[in-house]
Amino acid sequence: MATADTLTEQLSQVETEYDQTVREDIELFRKQAADRLAGKLTDDELRPHRLRRGVYGQRQEGVQMIRTKVPGGLLTSDQMRRMAHVADEFAGGKGHLTTRQNIQYHFVPLGRVADLLHALADIRLTTREACYNTVRNVTACSYAGLLPEELFDVQPYSRRVAFAFLHKELTDNLPRKFKIAFCGCPEDCIATRINDVGLRPVMRDGQRGFRMTVAGGLGPLPTESQVLHEFVPVDDLVRRIEAVIRVFNVHGNRKNRMKARLKFVLRERGFEWLRDTIEENYQDILRDGGIPMPAEVPENFGGFRSHPAPLGSGDLLPLYEPGSPAYLHWKQTNIRAQKQAGYSIVNVKVPQGNLTGDQMRGLADLADQACDGNLRFTMTQNVVLAWVPQGALKRVYGALGKLELNGGAVDEISDPITCPGAYSCNLALTKAMGLGAALASVVEGYDDPQVRKMRINISGCPNSCGQHWIADFGFYGNARKLAGPDGVKREVPYYQMLLGGTMTEFGLAVQSLPARLAPVAVERVIEHFQKNREGGESFRQYVLRNKVETFRALTADLVKPPMDNPEMFRDWGDDIDYSLKLGRGECAA
What we know:
- With 589 residues, the chain is an alpha+beta fold.
- The protein folds into four domains: 118 residues, Sulfite Reductase Hemoprotein, domain 2 (Alpha-Beta Complex); 150 residues, 2-Layer Sandwich (Sulfite Reductase Hemoprotein, domain 1), CATH 3.30.413; 88 residues, Sulfite Reductase Hemoprotein, domain 2, CATH 3.90.480; 149 residues, Sulfite Reductase Hemoprotein, domain 1 (2-Layer Sandwich).
- The chain is built from 16 helices and 20 strands.
- Helix 3 packs antiparallel against helix 10 and helix 6 crosses helix 8.
- The protein starts with a helix and ends in a 30-residue tail after the last helix.
- The relative contact order is 0.10.
């Protein structure tokens, strides 16, 4: 049996080897980037190297988008401060939270990327394999370790799985991206069923394990995952996942990128073949060895601390006595009971996932002063603060107010999920965040509980970065040509509207509508729902009962409206006419 000193020595060796690998990899990329800038490499030659490091091209020339992994969505306050430093030093003072618990930076010159990567590595954050044909960021339940309903905390297992597959030859040149998600809460807040591997905790005869699903995915052709194992013991997790990855690596479609995900292997070969072939690979791993399950991960990786930070009391925060109903509304909508007596979970609403460097620093300070020194990114582009003393809630609300982050109605209809869209992405057709802001202002006045609990998800193209398939109202961008008053046909931004999606069921496609009229369509559907729903009926049940034809008729006059209003030719957030511009697609989130 290993002693504490032995374990400490082993961890130190793991950290030394990991840090050396990371630094050498960054310096290799620095040389590759310098060669590109000097004309010694073409952009095509550099592309796979930068994508492996989480570095995307943007539609704007000469700058990059950098995607930083946050394994399990958990990070320390010091890591958040480093995120703020990176935003201010390299990315114009801003960062964007994604639906896979990453944070993205935009408009970073290629020549500065290596310095940015070193700044992240100082605190053991990485961008490695956040893009490209790799095992992407491993996501985990935002409430792990906090809810009375969970069987056990999934975070320790999610970060060990994330570390196991990082910087491995098997996992950095797959046929396409590969996604893994862990969730322990009853509502499945991380949507495990839309992942290549989804894991939900199970207890069997006193032993911890996971129910394992495989081959889920969104994109233009969404596919629900299938149950592969009802129970995988925790010590067997990495071997079982590696067996799935091995099958995908060999049988994924490397010739047609549009059919390269694991879900297409399932569709084309059938579940029985997929299950049996995965089992064959698992038996090979048992005989010949595979990637081992790490005993632990380096300090700070996935928010790991060998010595947890002391809990903050909130006493150092300024006194705050709310003088309006806003605090009570925030407390009602943003606070959740924690299983540890005397503490609460605070959900911080981050409009469309956009944070400034100052806001990041403020949240980090708040995590130290009134929480457990950690922050959690959610799939809904918000931030969770845990271990907040119930007596400190007013002070926390006041502190969030100074950061302009004390909005209520978190994860409700007025808190839409959006990808960056045509703001920066080569593949996007529309500016999803512009529509998100427009819809948020239209729906924020509803007080009907059934309406308020709906969700709006928006993507700038069909690739589902905004996860439009699993929202009550889903939208994805497209374009058409329509004639203006002068008879000349010009491009017009449109959105395909979907209705009735949930975390486990995909929405129904209704029809494509001009971007400027999407808010009108939402208002009409909500009004129809309020007037025609049956007692106890969910929105999805109402949509299925009324059928797609009802909603097509309800919005038919919006599809090709009179084009005498010049704003119809403009995307939300723009003051110039829309123009369809597409660059080379690289790697949708």
